[in-house]
Amino acid sequence: MVKRVSLWSAGCPVARSLDAIGDWWSLLIIRDAFDGKRRFGEFQNGLGISKGVLSTRLRDLTKRGIFETVPASDGTAYREYILTEKGRGLFLVIVALRQWGEDHLFTDGEARSSLVDREGRAPVARLEVRAADGRSLHWSDTQVIG
Q1: Measured distance CA(64)–CA(67) in Å, rounded
Q2: Phi and psi of 40, rounded to 5°?
Q3: Tell me, which fold does domain 13-141 have in CATH?
Q4: Higher pLDDT, 68 or 109
Q5: Strand, coil or helix: what is 2?
Q6: Residue 81's closest CA among 49, 45, 33, 46?
Q7: Measuring CA to CA, which residue among 63, 16, 62 is closest to residue 43?
Q8: Which residues, in sequence order, are bridge partners of residue 81?
Q9: Where are the beta strands (DSSP E) in 13-141?
């Protein structure tokens, strides 16, 4: 098995982000947290992930400040995992992945989940990158410097 190499010292924000949350289990755990899951058993049952893998991912995500643990909201002895401000900042990443998947990984008419606005139940608008002056930007309109 190939040993995972840390990208934390890279000068690229994409590489560092992938170092922090770049495996599918971590992203799916974060997705489920946005969907309201908070307890270890809820994550495990929803994902079908092994206890060992889930425990490792939750520990790493907590250590990196994406989750924090709090006493269970029902007063039991359990702990719950909640997204921190840093973790909630990943909402755009999850939405971007969702929209990319909708565009490229489903056939017309194939069943899939949808992200809607709670208030009006309307589909969420497409994400787009904008310049500081509000212009819509495409990949060819940008460059990385530094």
Answers
A1: 8
A2: -50, -50
A3: Arc Repressor Mutant, subunit A (1.10.10)
A4: 68
A5: coil
A6: 33
A7: 62
A8: 69
A9: 67-71, 79-83, 129-130, 136-137
| 11 secondary structure, DSSP code | S
* 85-144 pLDDT per residue, tens: 999 999 999 999 999 999 999 999 999 999 999 999 999 999 999 999 999 999 999 999
User: What H or E segment, with its residue span, contains residue 99?
Assistant: helix 91-104
Task: List own/partner pairs for 60-66 with CB under 8 A and 24 or more apart.
Answer: 60/26, 61/21, 61/26, 61/29, 61/30, 61/87, 64/20, 64/21, 66/20, 66/21, 66/30, 66/90
Instruction: Say which residue the tokens 């056939």 belong to.
Output: 107
Question: Alpha-carbon distance 137 to 94, whole Å?
Answer: 20
Structure-derived torsion over alpha carbons of residues 28, 104, 102, 14, reported in degrees to the nearest 10 = 40
Supply the DSSP string of 62-76, one letter for each residue: HHTTSEEEEE-TTSS
Q: Count of residues for the chain?
A: 146
- The two structure tokens encoding residue 109: 């008419």
Question: What was the pLDDT predicted at 61?
Answer: 97
